[in-house]
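Researcher: We're teaching a course module on how sequence relates to structure. For the next exercise, students receive a sequence and then see the predicted structure as tokens, so they can try to spot secondary structure elements on their own. Here is the exercise chain.
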Amino acid sequence: MKLYIYEHCPFCTRARMIFGLKSLPVELAVIMEGDAETPMHLIGKKAVPILQKDDGTHMGESLDIVRYIDGLGTPILTRDPVEELDTWGKDVWGPGLKLFIPRFTKADFAELATPEAREAYRLREENAFGDLEALMAATPELLGDVNPRLEKLGLLLGKRTELSISDITLWPILRSLSIVAGLTFPPAVLAYARSLEEKVGVSLMFDQKM
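Model: And here is the predicted structure for the students to work with:
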């Protein structure tokens, strides 16, 4: 199987996670930013991730891919969704985007390996979020919003021995936030993030913090 991704994309991270959790081999294919032709050809729209199945057909939508792969053999996502974690993720998503999106445009990802691709991505996100440098300047205010949310998450996590679809949606948010200098991951949150990092084989972004 082949998985078409952007390295920075939290939705692509969801799909990558299930392969790692189930120890299933998959070929990763990075689509360059600005390349609309490839995804349009594969699924009829510009969106990633895209899974090429063993039969040669393609499917999009991250959680559809996750459920399809988890259904191959013995499922690993055996716990019911955790409402408190899902709510936390939805609440932090808005301010989180304002923190990590402008940083993504400056970071080192394969899909941004050419000046043209990086500029295509910058323009795409600028169209979606407005002045990216203004968002960077708003970092102190946004940190003041998100850091208390991370403290709250530490209390929600508890000891979890079974995984659910909630982990598939939560961990990519934490991975994205790990690029933000000034955010404090409480011990329970950091332990959770590091544990899944090892299990899924996808690196957090602390080494690119800015």
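Model: If you want an answer key for the exercise: DSSP finds nine helices and four strands in the chain. The chain has two domains: 2-70, 83-208.
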